[in-house]
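User: Show me a protein chain along with its predicted structure.
Assistant: Here is one chain, sequence first, then structure tokens.
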Amino acid sequence: MLEQLLLTVLMTSVPLIFAATGELVAERSGVLNLGVEGMMLMGAVGAFATAFGTGNLWLAIIVGGLAGALTGGVFALFALGFATNQVATGLALTIFGTGLSGLVGAPLVGHAIDGLPQITIPVLSNLPFVGALLFSLDPMAYLAVALLAGVAWFLKRTRGGLVLRAVGDNHDSAHALGYSVLRVRLLAVLFGGMMAGLGGAYLPLMLTPHWAEGMTAGRGWIALALVVFASWLPWRVLVGALIFGGITIMQLAGQARGWTVPSQFLSMLPYLATIAVLVVISRNREFSLANFPSCLGRVFHAGK
């Protein structure tokens, strides 16, 4: 029973890892994209439509990532190309993604698909307790951890990661050194969109193999809070995702067990936890501002 519960927590954490990792990269470049929820929904509907129409789950994963990246490109067009306010543009992107995904997915409501298969690693999967938890997961779960590790390595160990962090910390200095601030930020936003799309794709391909309008259920907003919780450090994203995943499963388990607490309150738990974490972090200024990109949300004008 405990093993199955922990496995469910791990699976619930996967879309948060995808989305928060992508948003972390975007924010480290100095771009605040509040449209994570919209990008996740576009990835979800794109992946489900592809899986339902072709039966090819691997193609569905690719389409989900591309749908998220394309939606992120819409944000980049306005926020970077036309220098619009990033907060307002991100909120508009969430509304746009929510509406468009509902429109595109309307004919798909009520249909179901076969979810992703699990990958069983020989020998290791037979280990007691940890075998089923760590070595018998679906491919996207392994991909999420691999991409998180790749981002951690890129930001800390590579020249490209140093340039990206420099752009986020002081875009004027980075521009003076000859780096293209807008190009770096465009690539970061597209990567963030792709990751959000993959996080959204995981929902219909693995967690709940069907399409439902608004099926992300606020996970994009939790991913945004998760980046702050992680202090813009990749490996803390993994810890935070597991915590929020556990809280989400707790409210589902409570409803299934018939706890005497109102179901509406149980449904609020993940979001109450998000607010509580942000309040606690904000009280410790040194922790909350650690690794904070100084130019986050600031518009860059190359001619000034």
